[in-house]
Amino acid sequence: MQDVSKSPMAAGGRVLSSFLGWASRTRRHDLVAQARALLSERGEASGTALAAELLAHYDALDTAQRIAFLKRLALEFGADRQRLQQALERYRQDASPRHELALHAAAEPLRQELIRRLNRAPGGTGRLLAMRADLLRALDREPDLALLDADFRHLFSSWFNPGFLVLKRIDWDTPALILEKIIRYEAVHEITSWDDLRRRIDPEDRRCFAFFHPVVAGEPLIFVEVALTTEMPAAIAPLLATERRPLPARRATTAVFYSISNCQLGLRGVPLGNFLIKRVVEELKRELPNLRQFVTLSPVPEFMAWLARQRHDPQALALSASDRAVLAALDSGGAWQRDAAVVRRLRPVLTAAIAYYLLRARDATGRVPDPVARFHLNNGARLERINWLADPSPKGMAQAAGFMVNYFYDLRQIEENHEKFVKDGTVAASRAVQRLLRSADPRAE
User: Fold this and answer.
1) Active site residue 376
2) Which one of 141, 153, 205, 250 is at 20 to 30 Å from 226 when CA atoms are compared?
């Protein structure tokens, strides 16, 4: 029998093992040196091993050490400026395709190639998602990280292109490991128990769909919960009720998207939700041709924070002096809900304020300030109805005084609404919502 320990393959394995052992001993505490070594490595096997080693050492760092490493990547692994300047000069002299390609290659920062090489490690994609999550948690206080974040977002937008994603229905037969993650990642309406989860995914008038990526096995990226009804809902409680009679799916005319949850912080800014909604609409239309309308019952998570700023700014246009006097009742905490006279005074003022917030308010960058509104309006939905005390839970009251809104996905107008919103910020809204604004703001046309 041949002695395999003396074979060329075994000898090569010993050389690689010896090299990696030396690398680990000499660079264990210098991840930047490891990153440079990974970029210079040409061998596929040794490159994969180096990538795995770097990621393992990164995982062993504490939070401060991780951020320090990420900052060095951001600041020290950019494009080669001399090479870029030379390529730019050649392109200015001769704007040929050859020089354009050379300029494009020279402009790419080393960070992007490093991320690609780290992705070759076993489980590399999921570990890079976790690395970007670390970055995002520190981004507000470490603005230098924006350079590295742009590279992550650029690459992830390609790697998690919807063409690579798999849409799966989540039901009671889905593996328990994934069901546990659905419970954990639910970000809009907390799932309180396994029974609560079953009520949302098992009855014939309930659906849940999630996007998965083939490389990140067992990890939902984003999911949406759907209720099949006969009308557009005005409150969340009936949809989540523990005691209710399921509607036969064949009788449903309306699909209600009442919760959309992103599961991976590392994918923030990568547009998955809009593609998820469109894919689910297509899936539901194939399964249930009786469906006639697709709507949401959506939270307004930033309304009360915005309103607090308006109340304390005497120059703010959204509120009059009399409005501010009425809104002082909000300072009593939740007590105002128990006083019918106060509720009667507050309701028209709050309703007018939220109509202004959703239709007219803009943040410092000129965007619609509410993130949920931006999401649905960018998808081409229409702001259809504002619902008073639709979510009286503590979270719903703290974020939006109990308001929820319906966005309507009119399949005939989605593209037109999207184009107008993207080009000039036009908010597509029903006449009912527009009337609330006109009654609230006499300057409105």
Assistant:
1) yes
2) 153
